[in-house]
Amino acid sequence: MFLELRGDLVTYASSITGCRSHAEDVVQDAFLRFREATRSGTPKSPVSYLYRVVRNLAIDRLRGRQREGEAVAAAALAGHPASQTPEDISLYRDQLRLLTIALAELDERTRRAVVMHRVEGAKLREIGDALGVSTSLAHSLVVSGMEHCRRTLERD
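^ thats the sequence. predicted structure below, dont judge the formating
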């Protein structure tokens, strides 16, 4: 059954993760979990169960990548490489170059919101006051700006 569904499961996971190689990993993990779960008995609907496992794992993978991308972007914006090895410093410089490009691509208000929040440590309320917008709009600006930075880092 797994071999018959594998291609469809990878396509399904790819639609969630946005990356075929991550989807392949998700489907492999799902198979291992499915195999473990079926040792104690087969679920009533094994196909639905397998799709649900793939969906949950794909969402977990996507959230993890987003958190990782935000952490890298935040560290680079704050001027702190994750570690001090020559390779890490080189990677940090590349990421900083990409983030500089990404920030330049943002409109002035979004760029200012991201810099105020991630570099200067301003609270959303303070950003909203400085930009003359609501706190919720300040939050949206920071989130969209950081998402743009994350996508830029992933493209490279």
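The radius of gyration is 20 Å.
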